[in-house]
Amino acid sequence: MPDLFGINGTALQLRSQRMGVLASNIANAGTPGYKAKDIDFTAALRAAEGGTDVSSAIDKATLYRVPVMPSLDGNTVELQNEQLAFSENAVGYAATLEFIRGRVDTVTRALKGD
User: Fold this and answer.
1) Neighbours of 74 (CB within 10 A)
2) What 3-state DSSP class applies to 37?
3) N or C: where does the chain have the smaller number of CB atoms within 10 Å of the terminal CB?
4) Distance separating alpha carbons of residues 108 and 88, to the nearest angstrom
5) How far apart are CA 4 and CA 36, in angstroms?
Protein backbone atom coordinates (compact mmCIF):
# COMPACT_ATOMS: atom_id res chain seq x y z
CA MET A 1 0.00 0.00 0.00
CA PRO A 2 2.81 2.54 0.64
CA ASP A 3 3.82 2.26 -3.04
CA LEU A 4 0.29 3.26 -4.01
CA PHE A 5 0.67 6.70 -2.44
CA GLY A 6 4.43 7.04 -2.80
CA ILE A 7 5.94 9.73 -0.63
CA ASN A 8 2.54 11.41 -0.26
CA GLY A 9 1.42 9.13 2.57
CA THR A 10 4.53 10.04 4.53
CA ALA A 11 4.12 13.72 3.66
CA LEU A 12 0.57 13.63 4.99
CA GLN A 13 1.75 12.11 8.28
CA LEU A 14 4.48 14.73 8.62
CA ARG A 15 2.13 17.60 7.83
CA SER A 16 -0.39 16.27 10.34
CA GLN A 17 2.25 16.10 13.08
CA ARG A 18 3.50 19.58 12.18
CA MET A 19 -0.07 20.88 12.38
CA GLY A 20 -0.24 19.61 15.96
CA VAL A 21 3.05 21.27 16.92
CA LEU A 22 2.02 24.59 15.39
CA ALA A 23 -1.42 24.43 17.04
CA SER A 24 0.28 23.81 20.37
CA ASN A 25 2.47 26.87 19.84
CA ILE A 26 -0.58 29.01 19.06
CA ALA A 27 -2.49 27.66 22.07
CA ASN A 28 0.45 28.47 24.35
CA ALA A 29 1.10 31.99 23.05
CA GLY A 30 0.25 33.40 26.48
CA THR A 31 2.01 30.77 28.58
CA PRO A 32 5.04 32.21 30.40
CA GLY A 33 8.23 30.31 29.58
CA TYR A 34 6.71 28.28 26.74
CA LYS A 35 9.27 27.47 24.04
CA ALA A 36 7.84 27.32 20.52
CA LYS A 37 8.85 24.36 18.36
CA ASP A 38 8.51 23.47 14.71
CA ILE A 39 9.15 20.48 12.51
CA ASP A 40 11.47 21.09 9.57
CA PHE A 41 9.19 19.43 7.03
CA THR A 42 11.83 19.15 4.30
CA ALA A 43 14.41 17.57 6.63
CA ALA A 44 11.85 15.13 8.05
CA LEU A 45 10.66 14.14 4.57
CA ARG A 46 14.24 13.58 3.37
CA ALA A 47 14.98 11.44 6.42
CA ALA A 48 11.83 9.40 5.85
CA GLU A 49 12.70 8.98 2.16
CA GLY A 50 16.13 7.77 3.27
CA GLY A 51 14.60 4.93 5.28
CA THR A 52 14.23 6.52 8.71
CA ASP A 53 10.87 5.73 10.29
CA VAL A 54 8.48 8.69 10.42
CA SER A 55 8.54 9.12 14.18
CA SER A 56 12.35 9.21 14.29
CA ALA A 57 12.41 11.59 11.32
CA ILE A 58 10.03 13.91 13.19
CA ASP A 59 12.12 13.74 16.37
CA LYS A 60 15.28 14.64 14.47
CA ALA A 61 13.59 17.47 12.56
CA THR A 62 11.85 19.07 15.56
CA LEU A 63 13.60 22.26 16.60
CA TYR A 64 12.94 25.10 19.01
CA ARG A 65 12.19 28.42 17.37
CA VAL A 66 14.52 31.35 17.96
CA PRO A 67 12.35 34.46 18.37
CA VAL A 68 13.14 37.74 16.63
CA MET A 69 11.97 39.63 19.72
CA PRO A 70 12.07 37.54 22.91
CA SER A 71 9.32 38.32 25.40
CA LEU A 72 10.02 39.29 29.00
CA ASP A 73 8.27 36.18 30.33
CA GLY A 74 10.48 33.80 28.32
CA ASN A 75 7.75 32.75 25.88
CA THR A 76 9.15 32.34 22.36
CA VAL A 77 5.85 32.16 20.44
CA GLU A 78 5.50 34.85 17.79
CA LEU A 79 1.83 34.53 17.00
CA GLN A 80 1.90 36.00 13.48
CA ASN A 81 4.71 33.66 12.43
CA GLU A 82 2.92 30.66 13.92
CA GLN A 83 -0.33 31.54 12.18
CA LEU A 84 1.47 31.94 8.86
CA ALA A 85 3.28 28.61 9.27
CA PHE A 86 0.00 26.94 10.27
CA SER A 87 -1.78 28.32 7.18
CA GLU A 88 1.02 27.29 4.82
CA ASN A 89 1.10 23.81 6.34
CA ALA A 90 -2.69 23.51 6.06
CA VAL A 91 -2.52 24.32 2.34
CA GLY A 92 0.20 21.69 1.87
CA TYR A 93 -1.84 19.17 3.85
CA ALA A 94 -4.95 19.82 1.74
CA ALA A 95 -2.98 19.51 -1.52
CA THR A 96 -1.38 16.24 -0.41
CA LEU A 97 -4.72 14.86 0.74
CA GLU A 98 -6.33 15.82 -2.57
CA PHE A 99 -3.59 13.97 -4.47
CA ILE A 100 -4.16 10.86 -2.34
CA ARG A 101 -7.93 11.10 -2.87
CA GLY A 102 -7.36 11.28 -6.61
CA ARG A 103 -5.14 8.22 -6.45
CA VAL A 104 -7.77 6.30 -4.46
CA ASP A 105 -10.45 7.32 -6.97
CA THR A 106 -8.26 6.10 -9.84
CA VAL A 107 -7.66 2.74 -8.18
CA THR A 108 -11.36 2.41 -7.30
CA ARG A 109 -12.38 3.08 -10.90
CA ALA A 110 -9.80 0.58 -12.15
CA LEU A 111 -11.11 -2.10 -9.79
CA LYS A 112 -14.69 -1.44 -10.87
CA GLY A 113 -13.67 -1.55 -14.52
CA ASP A 114 -14.77 2.02 -15.29
Assistant:
1) 11
2) strand
3) N
4) 30
5) 35
3-state secondary structure 54-88: HHHHHHHHEEECCCCCCCCCCCCCCHHHHHHHHHH
Model pLDDT, residue 74 = 94
Q: What is the pLDDT of residues 79-95, one digit of tens each?
A: 999 999 999 999 999 99
**39: amino acid identity, one letter:** I
| Cα–Cα distance, 96 to 69 (Å, whole number) | 34
Q: What is the DSSP string of 99-113?
A: HHHHHHHHHHHHHHT
Quick check: 19 and 62 in contact, CB under 8 A? no
d(CA 66, CA 55): 23
Rg (CA), the chain: 17
